[in-house]
Amino acid sequence: MITMKAAVYRSKQLFEVTDIPKPEPAAGQVLIKVNRSAICGTDVHAFMYDLAPTGAVLGHEFAGVISAVGAGVTRWKEGDRVIGGGGEWPVGQEPPATSHPRYNYRTMGFSANTRTRGYAEYTVLDDWAPLLIPDGVPDEAAALTEPCSVAVHAVRRSSLKLGDTVGVFGAGPIGLLVTQAARAAGAQVIVSEPAPGRSEAAMAVGAMTVIDPFEQDPVERMVELTNGRGPNVVFDCAGLKNTLQQAFEAVRREGQVVLVAVPWEPLPLLPAEWMAREIDFRSSWGGSPEDWQISLDLLASGKISASSLMSDTSTITLDEIQNTFEALMSPTIQLQTIIRM
Fold this sequence. Notes:
This protein is of the alpha/beta class. Helix content is 27%, strand content 23%. The chain has helices at residues 41-49, 96-99, 105-108, 139-142, 145-157, 173-184, 196-204, 218-225, 243-250, 289-301, 321-328, and strands at 3-11, 14-21, 29-38, 61-69, 81-83, 122-126, 131-132, 165-169, 188-192, 209-211, 233-236, 256-259, 280-283, 315-317, 338-340. The longest helix has 13 residues, at 145-157. The model has no long low-confidence stretch (mean pLDDT 94).
């Protein structure tokens, strides 16, 4: 039996890096050699709250190369560079997140499926699922296509118009990508972020200013910077106890608040402070195949920079996954973390 190295989820807050059987592609499938796999906040939540099934190999943000193709596969060949998702779902096979009329991510977000994903040396996908990596886009950047699609989706779902001013709470990986996607859509962006490394990254990707909420009231400052009106659209990419309320307080009359973060605990809101301004609220979830393709195009054109999301300590090996996930349970200055296979 041929084996490969993988990080297997064993129980709450516990990975085991071990050897498991190397998969083989069935008819209509491709085998992908994973080169880079990005750590997603969704997987961190699964690790924190014991949401993943025992024995699962997580990881859905990865880039690699086609290593073998199953019978009947004609669209791919060995050596093609691909990302692990973004293809159009076949009719009738759409995931519950997009098809279930009463989808609840908290109770339905992690199925009992233990299919091997991106925290392994190899993974298998149906041939419709991957997307081709454009020339000139390195694996590290390509692995961030999925989180980039989340940001692109949020901006496309918003009411943002060319020339608008946007507020962004949180400059973690998603906040930095939302900042860049909003800039690509023609907005000026004000960011609220206390961590120095993240605030510097926000300025590097084009924020007009970054507010340290420990030093200044971000609501007051955003209103001041917009001539007393507030931003046209505010994206909550932090999901902390106070940031959604602050987003509602900061946005202008008849503006819009978009929730991009995934809060796992109840958030206190005081609607009496802002509801008379008739603010629109919209949540945003994941990214569509179109958003994935737009993200690849933005990465290829340089309008979204992946390197600005990474520091000298951003790349780890699979053997470091346990300690890294423990640290990400209470993130401070971390940007995007990439596993080098």
